[in-house]
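Record Putative SGNH hydrolase-type esterase domain-containing protein, 368 aa.
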Amino acid sequence: MASEQKRWLVVHVIAIILALNNVAYEVNGDPQVPCYFIFGDSLVDNGNNNGIASLARANYLPYGIDFPDGPTGRFSNGKTVVDTVAELLGFDAYIPPYADAGGRDILNGVNYASAAAGIRDETGQQLGGRISFGGQVNNYKNTVSQVVDILGDEDSAANYLSQCIYSVGLGSNDYLNNYFMPNYYQTSSQYTPEEYASALIQEYSGLIRDLYSYGARKLVLNGIGQIGCSPNALAQNSEDGSTCVEKINSANQLFNNLLKSLVNNLNSELPDAKFIYINNYDIFQDLINSPQSYGFTVTNAGCCGVGKNNGQITCLPGQTPCQNRDEHLFWDAFHPSEAANVIVGRRSYSAQSSSDVYPMDIRQLAQL
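=>
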């Protein structure tokens, strides 16, 4: 009888140990993809502009006031959209900026984003230094050569990179800090909005194909959000300070429609790759239409900044921001709050509505 009780006890102890191991694996399991590469602008820059002679920098408080590491260069009070996606993909650390990435850490991915950057090389030049989309792609090519060295040969590197997620989000500054800035740029007199969107997509497409040539196979192409609803646009161009600026938003929609069509074209032309489109425009429309259901009480003003609606310029060093940051859709004159970024990141990863993504979400893309 004693021996049977002993055996029963041993079996149950083993079962408990196995169960605990399974729980630990679920919590600390491997990421769903081996690496995550990020290309973009200030919406996702996490420190690449810190060492650049540029006015587009955010490595000072109150930026990062709610981020565990404090100010890092993120244009947010806390996390960005790609930070949220990295968490959901299962990474145990945020993807490092290219400026700081090195060694075997690059095997987890690299963030190449640069504040004020655009698809066009001249975009954002009035703000000083920045790394355009073309420059970011060149930096990625340097990373690929390092991956080849680490893994031993090009075939191993190509197989590894083919499993990774690539996120591209550019175009906002080509409107904000180019087309709709006629005192600095000639593009609005050279192109109609339709022609400009086509020119941007043509250049964008060429750089995407460069990424494909260097191993990218799972690509997330992010549409432009509602720039005409930012506190800056409302402060400068809205008669009542709350109605979104239609001429800006309609131009953004022209770009987004072409970008979604590009996803179709690339999926048919490059059958060993998979492209998806994130409909940031409609996701933001949902947040603006139903702010209370997402916990937002302020949608037309930044939490910090200067001027009407805190919309003339971004947060000043040492400025005291609002206390109810989670209730603000926007953090500063241009950038969403962490609360908004988390929602967009979650809906990009796992679509809440069928219109959020096309033809699938990031979670499904990771599983391919």
